[in-house]
Amino acid sequence: MGRKIIVFGNEKGGSGKSTAAVQVAIGLLRQGHSVATLDLDARQGTLSRYMKHRAEHGDLPMPRQAAILPSPLDSQKDAAEADRWALDSALNDLHDVDYVIADTPGNHTGLSRLAHAKADTLVTPINDSFVDFDMLARVDPKTRKVLGPSVYSEMVWDRRKERAMARGAPIDWIVLRNRLGFSESHNKREVGEALDELARRIGFRTAPGFGERVIFRELFLSGLTLFDLGSKAGGPPLAMSHVAGRHEARTLIDAILAGPPLRSVARAAS
Fold first, then answer.
1. Domain locations in the chain?
2. CA separation for the pair 70, 15 (Å, rounded)
3. pLDDT band at 182 (very low <50, low <70, confident <90, very high)
4. Disulfide engineering: 47 pairs with which of 39, 118, 130, 149, CB 3.0-4.6 Å?
5. What's the rounded Cα separation, in Å, for the pair 89 and 75?
6. Domain 4-269 - what CATH class?
7. What pTM was estimated for this model as a whole?
8. Distance (Å, rounded) from C-alpha 196 to C-alpha 215?
């Protein structure tokens, strides 16, 4: 198996990219894979700080780590070239791992666009509301029907076309419904229906994300993940909600590793 690059991307902050990236990285490590994390939001540095807290334990499995800051050059062309060189250099240094898990900023940057083009799998977490859905598509406010792709979807579509023109493998795009409430609601059904419609139109697949669990926020300062609870690492006792959260993380990893159905690959490449 060759190296796979898994990019967590969404141009809206607060969608849970870093949380999902950490859980997937450590889950893959616990499965015996070699993993590296690549923090492309190094100015905010959530992923890097999470790993710093984790390293303080001294006895936990650790991925290799790298981080990149956007180029400070004034010239847009020179900055783009510097960003491209920095990303290529970092990925070359991480050529011998099974998986690179990249976390991107919650806004539109040249470095983020470059990373999206490198993705074998793109995971886009969105909070379960039409506020976040607006990054993917425009919706008729009265009928809730999808009118067309929005800015982020158009950016991903452009990166997919670049890959196709370069005869690269299609980008497997997964949209992750994140921070789901545990009660059924009219809004929840409407968001789900809109996502299903948009998935058919622009060629992504959906996966269930993480429920709204306090444990994800509590684990940050300890550097632990749901895959560490119950081990000798310490942290809160393992509760039923933690077991359910771990199952959610494993389900996401399984979805990533399974890859898209063959018909989705053909549609994404067309």
1. 4-269
2. 21
3. low
4. 39
5. 21
6. alpha beta
7. 0.90
8. 29
